[in-house]
Amino acid sequence: MNTLGIIKNNMKLSHPVEVLETLLIRLYLYDRTSNKDLSLKSNLPIPIISAFKKELIKYNFAENKGVFKLNSTGIKYVQNELKYKSIDINKYNLLSSNEKREEFANELSVLLEPIYNNRPQVNVLLDQAHATLETSISRVMLLLNNPRVFKQNILFLGDDDLTSLALMMAFKKLGHYSSKNIFVKDIDQDLLTFIQDIANQNDFFINTEYLDLKRANVYTKDFDIIWTDPPYTLSGLKLFLSRAISLAKNDNSEILLSFGQKKPMENQEVQRLLNNQNLLIKNIYPQFNKYHGGSIISNVSDLYVLSVTPHTYPIISGKSDYSDKIYTGELNPRIKFYQCKSCNNMITIGHGKNILTIEQLIETTCDKCHGNKFQYRGQEKVNSSTNVSQLGTHIIVDMKDCDAEILKSVSAIEKIMLDVAQKFGLNIVTHNFHQFKPWGVSGALILAESHFTIHTWPEYHYAALDLFACNEFKHQDAFITELQMQLNAQEYEYKILQRGF
């Protein structure tokens, strides 16, 4: 047993020995302090700090004076045993200044920008959406708040945001060239190769490993900090959290979880999942993470700082495979429609198509004129289950930049709606339209097939329309084009949902 282990036993301390390591490192970094200040910085009661000081004096690690200060023996212990000899203490301590902290972050940004500009393209099948460079640097600055970060084993469980490389650059700037405590486990082999290549170019070592979290594995408890940004599904969250817990070293470990806000009932499920696994929520940073192209989560997500407790356990055992679908593309497959701005060619991308993302479409160009500018026109949910009883097609249309005079007139709107319904063979049972004051129209056609409705906002040149047809409706493109023409709309978007149970 090493010296700190003996001191822990002498103190009859229930905390892990890593708590004493952190105290020792703080003393090393800050040179001298009072019991009260160390208590405030470590969130430990003063009696524990006082008992620790007595033990350090007894083992000739600290000076026997009024202030709490390591002597040469204690300093050598931290440098050699805890591997802190290379850390530039002065530069690290300057990060307590907001001005120097911002300066450090800007220097990191300059180093990382060319790397981030060349990172692998997102794989939407894996729910990837790159975090911004600023977000990765904010994550690193948060990690650097903990002075023990240079010794801790830090795992990035999925790292298409390249936070591992941002942390590597920060370590290098602080003199920690020989670090071997950054780990990345990911299912994306292209990403792992990219991280490894950049690390090699910078004479740095990052431990990378291909890992499919759905497969049973030997998940060894090796990690003090686990950073994960799981798929935006409850099943994905459950799996990634379970694997993170299986990899956490002990009850002093932390899981830093990035996850977007959901509907209130689903947010309750997130909270229940954390509680059921006995994870302690130490902090929540709302909208901490910002993304390129993460529209499903409004391009932002919250950061949860979770503490592993002695009673924390994984709901999904590391010895078990996991068969549930975890990616949004599996659970909620969609296709999207884009129109080429050069030739008006309509292009479908997404689930089951050769092109999955708008980024890929821009790179591929229009298959008719090779233009690379496109207008988003809507999306359609794909029915991927053979067990669903489909009852109808629901088309939701947003017409923008319409003729305000048309939108103000109840008689004009009624005529348009009746005319469109007749053109597309919709059988009207009854209809009703209402003129609001000072303007705006709402109207509904009850159809033998279901309904056709409109609500107008002339002051915004906007109209919202719904068509629900309980029989097969194959004329959606012509239907939307007709509405655009009749309302004199300059832009439109639409969604198509297959309704059923």
Automatic annotation (TrEMBL):
It is an enzyme of class 4 (lyase). The active site is at 450 (schiff-base intermediate with substrate), 455 (proton acceptor), 470 (proton donor). One of its GO terms (biological process) is spermidine biosynthetic process. InterPro entries: AdoMetDC_fam_prok (IPR003826), BpsA_C (IPR002723), DNA_methylase_N6_adenine_CS (IPR002052), S-AdoMet_deCO2ase_core (IPR016067), S-AdoMet_deCOase_pro-enz (IPR017716), SAM-dependent_MTases_sf (IPR029063). One of its GO terms (cellular component) is cytosol. Binds 1 pyruvoyl group covalently per subunit. Pathway: Amine and polyamine biosynthesis; S-adenosylmethioninamine biosynthesis; S-adenosylmethioninamine from S-adenosyl-L-methionine: step 1/1. Heterotetramer of two alpha and two beta chains arranged as a dimer of alpha/beta heterodimers. The modification Pyruvic acid (Ser) is found at residue 450. It catalyses: S-adenosyl-L-methionine + H(+) = S-adenosyl 3-(methylsulfanyl)propylamine + CO2. Keywords: Autocatalytic cleavage, Decarboxylase, Lyase, Methyltransferase, Polyamine biosynthesis, Pyruvate, S-adenosyl-L-methionine, Schiff base, Spermidine biosynthesis, Transferase, Zymogen. The record marks 449-450 as: Cleavage (non-hydrolytic). GO terms for molecular function: adenosylmethionine decarboxylase activity; methyltransferase activity; nucleic acid binding. Gene3D superfamilies: S-adenosylmethionine decarboxylase, Vaccinia Virus protein VP39. NCBIfam families: SAM_DCase_Bsu (TIGR03330). Pfam families: AdoMet_dc, BpsA_C. Residues 115-339 form the N(4)-bis(aminopropyl)spermidine synthase C-terminal domain. Its EC number is 4.1.1.50. It comes from Xenorhabdus ehlersii. This is S-adenosylmethionine decarboxylase proenzyme. Catalyzes the decarboxylation of S-adenosylmethionine to S-adenosylmethioninamine (dcAdoMet), the propylamine donor required for the synthesis of the polyamines spermine and spermidine from the diamine putrescine. Its cofactor is pyruvate. Is synthesized initially as an inactive proenzyme. Formation of the active enzyme involves a self-maturation process in which the active site pyruvoyl group is generated from an internal serine residue via an autocatalytic post-translational modification. Two non-identical subunits are generated from the proenzyme in this reaction, and the pyruvate is formed at the N-terminus of the alpha chain, which is derived from the carboxyl end of the proenzyme. Belongs to the prokaryotic AdoMetDC family. Type 1 subfamily.
